[in-house]
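step 4 of 6: structure.
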Amino acid sequence: MGRYVIRRLLQMIPVFFGTTLLIFLMVYVMGDPIAGLCGDRQCDPATAAQLRAEFGLDKSVWHQYLSYMGNIFTGDFGTAFNGQKVTELMATAFPITIRLTVVAIVFEIVIGISLGVVTGLRRGRPVDTGVLILTLVVIAVPTFVTGLLLQLLLGVEWGIIKPSVSSEAPLDELIVPGLVLASVSLAYVTRLTRTSIAENARADYVRTAVAKGLPRRRVVVRHLLRNSLIPVVTFIGTDVGALMGGAIVTERIFNIHGVGYQLYQGILRQNSQTVVGFVTVLVLVFLAANLIVDLLYAVLDPRIRYA
Amino acid sequence: MPEQKPWDETTGSGAISGAGAGGAMDLAVDEGTTLEKTPGGPEGTGPAGKPRSLWSDAWRDLRRNPVFIVSGLIILFLVVISIWPSLIADQDPLNCDLAKAQEGSRPGHPFGFDGQGCDVYTRTVYGARTSVAVGVLSTLGVSLLGGVLGGLAGFFGGGWDAVLSRITDIFFGIPVVLGGLVFLSVVASSTVWPVIGFIVLLGWPQIARIARGSVITVKQNDYVQAARALGASNSRMMLRHIAPNAIAPVIVVATIALGTFISLEATLSYLGVGLKPPAVSWGIDISAASQYVRNAPHMLLWPAGALAVTVLAFIMLGDAVRDALDPKLR
């Protein structure tokens, strides 16, 4: 187990550097970050040169990348061009997005897996067909359309929720945005669980458990579900990173000031330090989630051993 | 984000465990739970004793599948109107009259007018062209690039394979919408090409993984070993023996991905970085409509409905094709 973790951590290193370099290059070609600093006017050449030297923009891209990475490992994510520390921006933005993601994941787990189990055990019945069609529709309607429609109906027409979330973003205001963020993944979790349950329901160990006279509930939860959850856990694990990155759309619709909002602002204002910093953290989250998922396999399925 | 997800049940846990990293993938093979299904190969013989191929079997299944017929007809309709939109819309989508802004439906303008006074019906019809073009062209690009690179990695294995696996890991680490914002925000072009280029750039690793896994499975089959023993060259083995039998999972994932690419284009256009205004796109129209949604919901509902039906049709087609091509369900 220990050796496996170390091997995986070593494998993460090239991925981490590759991803951050890719984003760094993208941001670098994104345009001249100084141009946005003087408002709509053209910058005075002397001022521009001074700003360039101040932010280290006069060096080569490799030099910039290496010194940026060096700073990150000392916890210095740089300063946004408005003078605010990027770490300060993160401290306000990440808790909000993490709350939103947690709400979304809870929806995925509770609703997705329950629906998957119910439909998987009743394959071909009306409830199964109904849920399957529903998931198809949810997958087909893009998140921003779902979000806008829910905002229109629940927020504007019926007044059940506030159409835009306040800047502190308390948990109760995040329920509907969380559902919107989760919607597509929720449909995938349902379908994945359904397939997995339906496949395993005919397995020998399930028949044995039933033959032993175990109550149905115990057969389903302890035997069937535990064995069927591996692909689902993989999906949810990799989804954590995707949800945090994909929150841009949801945060834009409901005006939530989280990671997506900061990134959107950073990109619009060509604020490379903010963009690269936030993306770096998101990549780390994604990699860590993947590692945890792989370790969870061994917990869920004792047949899997990591040497 | 929807874009990375079409590998739900499609490919079994071969692709799923691959999402972790190399380690998990080896493990799945050792467990013998996945990658066992052989996509293709002649199986079953017809009544006349003539062996039927996987493809003719699949085609027979598809013709009887109502889901395939319905989604196929919708897609056929979309393709026709995206080539000849003037067949059903005789106006110009860019011919707008501000005086009619946000007005509801009236004879000759069944869907009403948008915020600029453009005819919503005409714009919705013309929007199909963008979506179909982006979907089809990016799927072709992604399948070619991903299929070839993934297939070669699976065939040759070794260092090539390790490098490719790490590269796909790198691309998987980038959230798609975010990458799109960064990458496309500099592009000023109002054509579909930058969006297609971006989707191909970030989409190919997904297909490469599927193709790699599929080729590794097929490579171990007896007929490939026999061809090798008979002295077939690498290129002959790849083209004659492996490619036809390994391509089914790639086609399935690519068909489902087509729908998600259309959805991605609309999302990027909604965020203002996909297609830019003189272009006609459902994403742009939905984005514009979201400001007026309280007064003129028809502006939002028509393009959004068209988008949803289109994506749904492609996903249903992918589902039907998967059911037909997956021998496990027979």
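step 5 of 6: annotate
 - The longest helix of chain A spans residues 216-253.
 - Chain A touches chain B through 68 residues (CB under 8 Å).
step 6 of 6: archive
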